[in-house]
Design goal:
By secondary structure, this protein is of the alpha+beta class. Helices cover about 30% and strands about 25% of the residues. A hairpin with a 4-residue loop joins strand 23 and strand 24. Helix 2 runs antiparallel to helix 3, helix 10 runs parallel beside helix 12 and helix 15 crosses helix 17.
Length: about 775
């Protein structure tokens, strides 16, 4: 059984408390990864690519049970108790309604990983946060974490990572506020790379189920889709075959997909075309459940997944837990309504958004909800049942039931979390149907939430998605480009986007979009000459009639590959022209600032960085570079101001924390020195390469040395730390480069998977300096 620590006495009566204590949970340990890795390029995972380089995949889990302590952060107010596990992806492991002791999130009492995650280990229960791909690569990895005190006395537990495949920055903050049962999840996603990246984001919420558990979607959901929309079904009553089950042959009560008991096999379904902002689940036995709320205009994703109640589901229950029973997953997607369904993050773009959950009691499945309240309305044999639950104390709430202009009843009560208003057995006048009704909850002269059933209509589900034809069978060049773009965006596992772009270029060699797409394809492979040729052909087409093209993307891409190739002056010309187009201005100006800094023109670089930050205050990499340049000029107060601004929005930003460490000896910083850079080896290498791109070789070397000094001096370290330090010392014309290259060659190569384009140059430098090194060329 899980052994939770006793609450610290000093915090027993604090309105919102957060503290960290070890939680001892039986765990099924993961064996060391094999020392002879193989990389599967065409692996299919969750409907998209399972390619995970540069990460190792764990392909077996021990069946030996041991006990170990996990760091747990407890967040609690008078209404809700949460427990966050920073060491396992920052997941919410416990969500309990204090009014009734009900675990509205599935409470897993063992840590029992199975090989479900993108890199292998995955556990069920709680709330798993997934990005930039589902069951994210780092779902079983530790995150950096900190606790933020809010102005109203609430707390936020921040968990942060540099995700290990695309090197983007992702973080989520779990917030509770005094007097409220509303759980806010604040999310920041930052593409800290100079290339466009794709991502999806889903919160995977587990709920313990049984024959009396019902999931609910907004009433306007009449159809649901399988993964990649490869199959569709009507909802809530399935009228045909879905996942091999002939629901059409069943009575309606046994074809309702909202009930766990009706789904015998592993099944997914995602809401199609809803304008509702909520969904959730309700336990009819416990008379309790939860609501998820988010703005559907950016968060349309509403999904149910179940292993099913049949033999397969029961086998997975045994695989994932010891005695906690079955569960379902009620997932919420942002900028996506399907899986896989990826959106774009442009270079250095930040997305911020929030998600919300709150427990409900006694009211039944919800038909309408806001962040303030949820209402339910059911009609049976001419009699209605009404309910409303609130997320904070509301005095004098009025619940009104109307049929057109006619008021059928009004009920007034003081509500609070855990104290809903339920009205049983309301008789409806003759001739009144459910579609005539409107239920409204109001307080202080305004409506909090309302629901109008409307007229029900049977609508056919939209058609399922179709597989694209082979490149040779595609009719037009535009369709070839778009098909390739789709395959790249959705990380297709078995079809290659370049096949479609090459076919487009065979038919139309000067096609600008396909040339640009192939330019990026070559750039990502480190094939800079081929990439430059493709970008130039696109530019030639775009400027044939107009010297000022509408789209500056190929100019920006050309600037990147010229910079990689060491042609800084030519790169500056390309970036400067790309900056004529608004979509590419900010990343181009940032690249120009890096190049200006590298050639010693610091004032020019600072002017460019001012423009970048003014246009995008969330561009944290630009702010930290500006701080580093201000420090070089001795303007320590300005440097500290930038560092403080970044850390105010992102208290776990590695670049800003490193700059705070560097500024710590000065009185202007006013902060203690940081012991090490958060995020470990790979984040330290990211930071070093960011400094190096701006010519800040001393700062880059310091970041690497900080990571090297953070562990046992005699223990082996990641080879790329020494290789990178050697490269930096050689570029700075300092002593010790050859010694560092030799140290890199002497380190164990286990899990040394270089993946940054800049590491091509690092390893080539090592090969030249130390020809006896066989590992650098390997």
């Amino acid at each position: 059984m899980i052994r939770l620590p006793e609450r610290p006495p000093a915090l027993r009566n604090v309105p919102v408390a957060a503290w960290s204590d070890p939680v001892v949970i039986p765990t099924h340990p993961i064996p060391p990864a094999d020392r002879n890795p193989m990389f599967l390029e065409m692996r299919v995972y969750q409907g998209s690519s399972g390619r995970v380089y540069p990460n190792p995949v764990i392909d077996s889990v021990s069946d030996e049970v041991v006990e170990r302590a996990w760091t747990a952060v407890h967040l609690e107010n008078e209404h809700v108790r949460l427990m966050v596990l920073p060491e396992i992806g920052g997941r919410i492991h416990v969500g309990m309604d204090r009014s009734n002791g009900y675990d509205f999130f599935y409470r897993q009492n063992v840590i029992k990983p199975a090989l479900v995650g993108l890199l292998g280990p995955w556990i069920s229960g709680g709330v798993e946060l997934n990005w930039p791909q589902h069951h994210r690569a780092s779902t079983f990895m530790p995150t950096d974490w900190t606790i933020e005190e809010l102005a109203d006395g609430g707390r936020t537990v921040w968990c942060s990572e540099h995700e290990p495949m695309g090197r983007m920055k992702g973080m989520h903050g779990v917030s509770l506020h005094p007097g409220s049962s509303l759980i806010e999840l604040r999310v920041r996603l930052f593409n800290r790379t100079p290339e466009v990246r794709t991502f999806l984001w889903w919160a995977n919420v587990a709920a313990r189920v049984h024959d009396g558990y019902q999931a609910f979607f907004p009433p306007d959901v009449s159809a649901v889709a399988d993964h990649a929309r490869r199959a569709m079904s009507s909802f809530p009553i399935a009228r045909g075959r879905y996942y091999g089950v002939d629901y059409g042959a069943r009575p309606a009560s046994e074809a309702d997909l909202g009930w766990y008991r009706n789904i015998p096999v592993p099944t997914s379904y995602m809401a199609v075309a809803t304008k509702g902002d909520f969904f959730g689940g309700y336990d009819h036995h416990a008379e309790a459940g939860f609501v998820h709320w988010a703005d559907h205009r950016i968060a349309p994703g509403k999904k149910l997944w179940t292993w099913g109640h049949g033999e397969v589901g029961q086998a997975w229950d045994r695989q994932l837990t010891d005695a906690d029973g079955p569960y379902i997953e009620l997932m919420a997607g942002v900028y996506t309504d399907n899986q896989p369904d990826f959106s774009f993050l442009t270079p250095y773009e930040t997305r911020t958004f929030s998600q919300y959950w709150y427990p409900i009691q006694r009211i039944g499945p919800v038909q309408a909800a806001t962040r303030e309240a949820a209402v339910s309305l059911s009609v049976h044999r001419g009699r209605a049942r009404l309910g409303v639950a609130a997320t904070s104390s509301i005095l004098g709430l009025a619940l009104r039931l109307r049929a057109g202009p006619r008021l059928l009843g009004e009920w007034t009560a003081d509500l609070a979390p855990g104290r809903p208003l339920v009205v049983e057995d309301v008789p409806l006048p003759a001739g009144i149907s459910p579609g005539d009704l409107e239920l409204t909850a109001a307080a202080a002269g305004r409506d909090l939430v309302s629901y109008r059933p409307g007229k029900s209509a049977v609508r056919r589900p939209p058609p399922a998605a179709r597989e694209p034809p082979a490149p040779q069978a595609v009719a037009t060049v535009e369709e070839l480009f778009l098909t390739g773009q789709h395959l790249a965006q959705y990380r297709h596992a078995t079809r290659r986007p370049e096949d479609y772009w090459r076919e487009a270029l065979r038919r139309a060699p000067d096609d600008a979009r396909s040339n640009t797409a192939m330019g990026w394809w070559h750039e990502q492979r480190g094939e800079f000459d081929q990439a430059a040729d493709r970008f130039r052909r696109a530019i030639t087409t775009l400027t044939r009639l107009n010297a000022n093209p509408y789209d500056g993307e190929p100019l920006y891409g050309l600037g990147l590959v010229l910079r990689h190739a060491g042609r800084a002056a030519d790169a500056e010309e390309a970036f400067a022209k790309a900056a004529w187009n608004r979509p590419w201005r900010s990343p181009s100006q940032f690249a120009l600032a890096q190049l200006a800094s590298a050639r010693g023109a610091i004032d020019e670089a600072l002017g460019l960085l001012d423009e970048v930050v003014e246009a995008d205050p969330n561009q944290a990499t630009a702010q930290t570079l500006r701080a580093a340049l201000q420090q070089r000029l001795g303007r320590l107060d300005l440097a500290a101001r930038d560092v403080a601004a970044v850390l105010a929005a992102d208290p776990l930003n590695a670049g800003a924390l490193d700059m705070r460490r560097r500024l710590a000896p000065s009185e202007q910083a006013g902060q203690p020195p940081d012991a090490e850079i958060p995020g470990g080896v790979q984040t330290a290498l990211d930071l070093a390469h960011e400094y190096a791109a701006a010519g800040l070789l001393e700062e880059a070397a310091s970041a690497v040395r900080t990571q090297l000094s953070s562990g046992d001096a005699d223990a082996p370290v990641h080879p790329m730390l020494h290789y990178t330090l050697g490269w930096l010392l050689e570029r700075a014309a300092e002593n010790g480069a050859l010694e560092e290259f030799r140290r890199g060659a002497a380190m164990p190569p286990d899990h040394c998977f270089p993946a940054r384009l800049a590491e091509i140059e690092v390893l080539r430098a090592a090969m030249v300096a130390n020809p006896a090194d066989a590992r650098a060329p390997y």
